[in-house]
## 1
Amino acid sequence: TLFRSVVSSYSLRPPQVATQVLQFPPGAISSLGTTVSFQGVARKLVIFGTPAGLVYSIDLRAFLFGGQKVPGKPDAAPYTFVPTSSSSVISHRNSVVQSKFVVVSPTNLESSNHVVVAGLDMMYCRVSAGKAWDLLNDDFNHHLLMTICGVLLLATIAARWVASHRNLKLQWA
């Protein structure tokens, strides 16, 4: 036989729970949420609201246990803080002062989520963990696509008609 041993999920050792304390450079966190995807394929983001009104979206992989290593320096000490950048701020010019909660809902597209952050103000935005890989660009040429599909449909009908007439001629010959 190909497999000589049987493995059961009951016989595996239980998962180990590990904790890690990281510093969040922007300061205190007033609200927190995570993204979910429509079918569970896309990467997850953690959404942070700060009392100052900024809303951050940070990839969940930045919180992996064991400490994050400095990119390009494998021998360096691990990070003790959550790496943030100006591109991780999703509130841009808007601010949600004293945010109380974050509500996240998946869209019908796998790569994006609806995020609502509420406090003294309310903010809505659409976030993607990576690029929106299942969304067409705004400048996509829909007319050209429809024209090509129409031409291919007409070519298929014409080829089918020619093939049936050729078979009819071969049967009469």
## 2
Amino acid sequence: WGSVFMFWVLLLLLLSFDVSVAKKRKRAVDKGDGKCDGAAFDITNTNDQDILCSSCEYTVHEIQTSAMLKIRKRHTVREREVFAVESVDAVCGWIRERRMAQMGQRPNREYINWLEKIGRGIEEIKGTLCMSPKEQSYMNNACEHFVSTYRQQIIDAVSKESYVDARIAVCKDLAKVCVGGEKSESDSEL
């Protein structure tokens, strides 16, 4: 009973924290201080290069992680491709179900799965945290764009016999949304 009680207490705390952050975010936007700008997805917008890069990297990382959980050395290239296709087809649905948030300030904003980050510990959340439906919509649109535009390239990168970081292959080399020698936060997770 103790663990069940703790679960409900933590859940209530989490939900109340979510509501208080949303209220603070609304006040920040109402004051017009620009902390959460709620950018609309636009692949040509150079002002939002940081979140374009982050949304691409997050999408491709989720595809690669999902496929790599299934792929083993004994699998043929064709079997690897099947796992990669399954992951590509499912990734935008997974992202729609998650609580995506934008963390940080320009030019170092990034998209995170808020519930996953909070599960690791509140100290992992740094800077401004924006969790409005606009951020979720941005990630959904970005996912659809990158998956539809670079579908075959993602599948090819993920299904190779030797490991290739698909984020570099797609987001930096093909889409060119991640420019320069920047190292993203998600690079340290792999």
## 3
Amino acid sequence: MLKLLVVAAVIASAGFAQQCPANIPAAQATITQVYNGASQAYQWTISPTSAVSQPPSGSTACSAPEYISQFGGGTCQANANQQTAQPQVIINSCKYSFSDGGSRTMTLALSCDASATTMQLTQTVSVTGPTTALVYAFSGKYAGVCSGGPTNGPTNGPTDGPNGGEGGGSPACGGGCA
């Protein structure tokens, strides 16, 4: 634990404090939902940094733009349209938290994979809790959450660099990593 804190302090003091990416493109995937021992595959649209209205082909959109949307039988089955907290930074990973404003809470934990230039989601989502308070836990990988940012993918747009006004780099590096 002490070693982890020392590494975090060194990174922060060097001007490379990690930030969660501000612009992660939405991803659609078939993900198996596991709840109370039963498994069911659904289509999901996941967009951790902005609410979108992007249903899979042949499905009806949810009633409003969502961060996370579940589709089955051509209709919106579950969704999360409220960000409940700022993204949580953990060395080389970010955790995003959402809610439907009622009985569902959804989290997305993205870990560092320098080769994942687009968000890569795991094939299952764990669902826990009673039906009146379901908790969905998604996970995946994305290069943008690495403390050095993506190595060969798109940048997240202009950001201030360590000397001010530089730009085009990953926010994880303040625009100044090369």
## 4
Amino acid sequence: VRYALRRSPVELGNAIFTGSAQRSIGPKQAFGYGEVNPSNAPGMAPYQAKPPENFEDTVKYISRGMTQMPTRKEIIEAIGYPGQKHSAGGITTVGRIYYGPGRYDYGRPVMPQGWFANWFYGFWEFGHLMFVADRWIFFRQLRHLFATIVCFIPMWLQMQWNVKQWDDFKKTHVQ
């Protein structure tokens, strides 16, 4: 058997150069298992397409959007699992597990009409993403918070014991 490296010409027809790795088959801009655009997906209702501008829409938005229990898909995507697919995005963008017609940012987002809602649109969008449309991201942040606390408590306890031992040492070993 010969193990020598052989020179070969660059194959210009491969996926890197032709873009054939990006196939237009299947759903776009959504990931995870299950349906991409189910009828009961959070954030797909018409009153959730833009910031509420009247009392009736505000009541619907808070009572139905923010108090709805998370779906099984949201919980599984938030916890994570081996082989979990990730989304198309850069450093600060995240994917959508539900995406399609009816979602507020599908296509061109409908902007609010009043100046008050326009002024606070960024705050509304953050709350909408974290607590209504992409709640799995908020749950994932909670996962990180709880894991940090679980890892921090033993170190903090060790630190407290060490301080106490140093105090005891200083009392018994005067310099």
